[in-house]
Design a protein that fits this description.
By secondary structure, the chain is an alpha+beta fold. It contains 1 helix and 5 strands, in the order H-E-E-E-E-E.
Length: 117
């Protein structure tokens, strides 16, 4: 009986790995099939954009006004949920945000470095 325990546990682990991988693939396929024009999405490389056009295996994302890039549909990792309280148009950057000039300095003073031996 003890000699069957290890093979059964290994078989169960391998079966679980296949099942979970298949479930993830199905969820990704369902997501890619549900994409529509106007959805805001994030690609696997971390690029956010709005779907401008859909092709057979490609999706055209508008990443900035007038800038459209073409991605393989499988590169879409997730859709960005819409906030119902947010206005339909995006607001421009205001002067209340921190500019790079106001940001703290990250430069290192060469005189402060210890001397090399």
């Amino acid at each position: 009986m003890e000699s069957l325990l290890l093979p059964v546990l290994l078989l169960g682990l391998v079966g679980f790995m296949f099942w979970s991988q298949r479930r993830r693939q199905k969820a990704a396929l369902d997501l890619q099939d549900s994409i529509t024009v106007g959805d805001e999405v994030c690609t696997t490389s971390g690029l956010f954009g709005t779907v401008a056009e859909l092709g057979d295996g490609v999706v055209h994302l508008e990443i900035a006004p007038g800038t459209v890039v073409k991605f393989d549909r499988r590169a879409v990792a997730l859709t960005v949920p819409r906030d119902p309280a947010a206005p339909a148009t995006s607001s421009p950057v205001t002067s209340e945000t921190t500019s790079p000039v106001d940001a703290p300095s990250t430069t290192v003073d060469p005189a402060a470095r210890p001397e090399e031996k």
